[in-house]
């Protein structure tokens, strides 16, 4: 029997398989990112922005809820089983969109997309953390998010191109069926990481067990560091829920073509994905707090920049900066959670964090729709930017450094 070892190099093949798998996980979201808001207006005649963004609300809440339970289920039954279930559910998404005869079917499709993402993405990140040493967690999470958001970006651009060349439906969503089949096949090959968790638990010097209720309380509000990280994650995805729904509408309102919108909508997650390859690793070297604080502020400033400029190339720069700001915090927040949580309840704590973080998608779409209907799309973007700015200020004032090599007290 092969000896279980902790470390990315020691588990390189399994680590790389998980990286490739998460590329296809992200591709499922990218498939919708450019064209679904436009499908709502053009194919189903939705006039209200709130109604048009209802698919993001359904996605956000279902993904958030599944994230919470996925961590607990994975701690009990193993990561690989949950990963395979997630891909099985994912097949319903492109099929429902292809055959949708009314908007409620699109909303239901995005409930299943939320379940798919909550199970698959949660497992790929947890499995990479299981394999990595404590000093490699930022890099592990960064690589995972790099792969996922590269998938989002690639498929956002591809779906926009296919839609402009053929039609909004069904052609772009045929690709979704292929993505699910590839993702499921890769997940069959991936090895479970249960033995790695057991090894870390047996060697932990703080091997306590917390109930699900205690993990929820600690991650949400009782533990100062965990609660700040959770609020920062929620603020980040609230901003992204708004961007997902409003960016295509905003850029269409200023006269850009569908292919131009597709490129702008793709550049933001592409920048987000690419720079996570470096920011996660950087957080392992210089610490988590600096990246979290500055990244939250850069997100807010980039949104205001989009509103203040009126030229295509400058919008591209703003989209890249928005992606960089998100990349600075996304892997760092999750690595910081894993610094604090103990192996026995780490996936559960990550599940609670991801529950609140991904509920931000729903709240972002909800607030963006209401603000756009009451005011206009520019006001909605500008007001939402206040939240990541506030989260950065709170983190600057109250968050302690969690990287073990820089802080003796991580709780």
Automatic annotation (TrEMBL):
Signal peptide: none annotated. One of its GO terms (molecular function) is transmembrane transporter activity. It holds the Pfam family MFS_1. InterPro entries: MFS, MFS_dom, MFS_trans_sf, MFS_Transporters, Sugar_transporter_CS. Keywords: Cell membrane, Membrane, Transmembrane, Transmembrane helix, Transport. Residues 14-403 form the Major facilitator superfamily (MFS) profile domain. The chain crosses the membrane at residues 12-31, 51-70, 82-115, 146-166, 173-190, 242-270, 291-309, 315-333, 377-399. It is found in: Cell membrane. One of its GO terms (cellular component) is plasma membrane. It is a multi-pass membrane protein. PANTHER family: INTEGRAL MEMBRANE TRANSPORT PROTEIN, RESISTANCE PROTEIN MDTM, PUTATIVE-RELATED-RELATED. This is MFS transporter. The lineage of its organism: Bacteria, Bacillati, Bacillota, Bacilli, Bacillales.
């Amino acid at each position: 029997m092969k000896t279980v070892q902790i470390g990315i190099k020691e588990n390189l093949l399994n680590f790389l398989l998980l990286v490739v798998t998460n590329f296809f996980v992200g591709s499922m979201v990218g498939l919708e990112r450019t064209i679904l808001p436009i499908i709502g207006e053009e194919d189903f005649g939705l006039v209200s922005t709130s109604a048009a963004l209802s698919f993001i609300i359904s996605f956000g809440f279902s993904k958030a809820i599944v994230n919470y339970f996925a961590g607990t289920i994975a701690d009990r039954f193993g990561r690989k089983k949950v990963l395979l279930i997630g891909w099985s559910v994912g097949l319903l998404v492109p099929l429902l969109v292809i055959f949708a005869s009314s908007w409620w079917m699109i909303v239901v499709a995005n409930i299943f997309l939320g379940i798919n993402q909550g199970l698959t993405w949660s497992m790929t990140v947890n499995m990479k953390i299981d394999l990595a040493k404590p000093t490699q967690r930022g890099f592990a999470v960064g690589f995972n998010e790099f792969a996922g958001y590269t998938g989002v970006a690639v498929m956002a651009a591809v779906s926009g191109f296919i839609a402009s060349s053929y039609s909004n439906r069904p052609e772009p969503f045929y690709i979704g069926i292929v993505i699910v089949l590839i993702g499921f096949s890769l997940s069959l090959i991936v090895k479970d990481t249960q033995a790695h968790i057991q090894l870390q638990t047996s060697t932990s010097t703080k091997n306590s067990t917390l109930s699900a209720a205690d993990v929820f309380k600690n991650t949400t509000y009782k533990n100062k560091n965990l609660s700040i990280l959770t609020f920062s994650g929620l603020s980040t995805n609230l901003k992204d829920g708004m961007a997902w729904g409003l960016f295509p509408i905003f850029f269409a309102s200023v006269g850009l073509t569908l292919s131009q919108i597709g490129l702008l909508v793709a550049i933001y997650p592409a920048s987000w994905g690419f720079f996570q390859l470096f920011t996660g690793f950087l957080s392992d070297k210089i610490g988590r707090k600096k990246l979290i604080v500055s990244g939250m502020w850069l997100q807010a400033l980039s949104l205001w920049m989009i509103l203040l400029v009126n030229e295509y190339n400058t919008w591209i720069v703003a989209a890249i900066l928005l992606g960089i700001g998100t990349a600075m915090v996304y892997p760092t927040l999750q690595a910081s959670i894993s610094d604090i949580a103990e192996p026995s309840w780490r996936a559960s704590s990550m599940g609670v964090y991801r529950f609140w973080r991904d509920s931000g998608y729903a709240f972002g779409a909800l607030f963006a729709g209401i603000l756009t209907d009451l005011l206009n799309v520019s006001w909605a973007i500008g007001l939402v930017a206040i939240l990541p700015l506030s989260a950065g200020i709170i983190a600057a004032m109250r968050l302690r450094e969690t990287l073990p090599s820089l802080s003796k007290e991580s709780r």
